Amino acid sequence: MVAELHDKGWALFPSEAKVAAWAEEARAVALRHIRDPEAQAKWLQCEGTWFVGVDTLPNGPDGAVGQAGPLSGAAFRAACDLYGVLPLHRGQVSVIYPGYPRPRAGENEAAARYRLKRDAAHVDGLLPVGPARQRMLMERHAYILGLPLTPCNATASPMVVWEGSHRIMRDMFAEALEAHPESDWGGIDLTARYQAARREVFETCQRVEIAAQPGEAYLLHRHALHGVAPWGKDAKAPPEGRMIAYFRPELPAGTRDWLELA
Q1: Average pLDDT, whole number, for the chain?
Q2: Hey, where are the domains in the chain?
Q3: 2, 42 in Cβ contact below 8 A?
C-alpha cells in the first residue's frame, strides 16, 4: 500500500473490524455536534448541501473518541511509519447531502462552475490570502487520512483524486520554494504556478473516484490534487448524509519536511 501511495498519490486500505468499530462510535458522537445550531450556522454551506465540519470531532490526539479507543488500522499505521507519530487535531467531519454542489456563499460564477465541473479540486494547505486571493502555503499537512462514517453507494459524492498529480505538484512546489528559506515559504505567491500545474494535471492525470465504506480507510499524499464529486442521480446514503472523518496532522514547524519527505 505504501508503494501505491507513492506511485498513484493515494491508497485504499481494506476493511478492518477495529476501524469499523471506531467509525461507528465516531459517527454517533459527530452527529450530536453536527446537529448543534451553532455548528450548523458556521459550517452548513452550499445552500445546505455540505457541512464542512472542520474540528467537529472531539477526539484526543491519539484519535480516541467517545467510548472508542485510540485510532488504529493499517492506513493510520502506514501514515505513522512514513511521517512519524503526529498528534491528531480534532477531526473534520465532512457531510454531503443530496443536491451537492450548490453555490457556496461568496462564490462567484467561475468558482461555482469549478466546484461543479472540476470537483473543487485543490491541494490542501494552499489558502487564498488577501483581496487578490493569492494562493500561499499556510498549512503543512503530513497526509490526508479519510475514514468513512456512513455506508453509501459509489455515486454519493465520493472523494476524487488525480492519480500522479502529487508528482506534478511536488515539482512545481520545488521550483517555487526550494531555493528559499523554509521560514519564507508562507509568504510566496504560488497562484500562477499552481494554476498552471492544475491545468497540467487535468490534461495528463486520470481522475479517480474513491468509493469507500465504514471500516475501510484511504490515504492521500499531501501534494495530491483532490476534491469531491457532485451528488449522483442514483446516489444512496442514509438520512444523515455521506459522512467522512478526515485527519490532516501538520508536520513540525521549522523543517523542510513538507517539501522534501516522500
Answers
A1: 97
A2: 2-251
A3: no
How confident is residue 3, by pLDDT bands cut at 50, 70 and 90?
confident
> Closest Cα partner for 177 from 234, 236, 229, 135?
135
Length of the chain: 262
In this predicted structure, what is the pLDDT of residue 1? 74
Average pLDDT rounded to a whole number, residues 114-132: 96
Contacts of 97 (CB under 8 A, 6+ apart): 48, 49, 50, 51, 231, 241, 242
CATH 3.40.1390 corresponds to the domain 2-251: no
What is the grid cell recorded at 85? Answer: 507519530
Is residue 176 predicted with pLDDT exceeding 90? yes
Beta strands in the chain (DSSP E): 10-13, 44-45, 50-51, 92-96, 126-129, 134-137, 143-148, 159-162, 207-210, 217-221, 226-228, 242-247
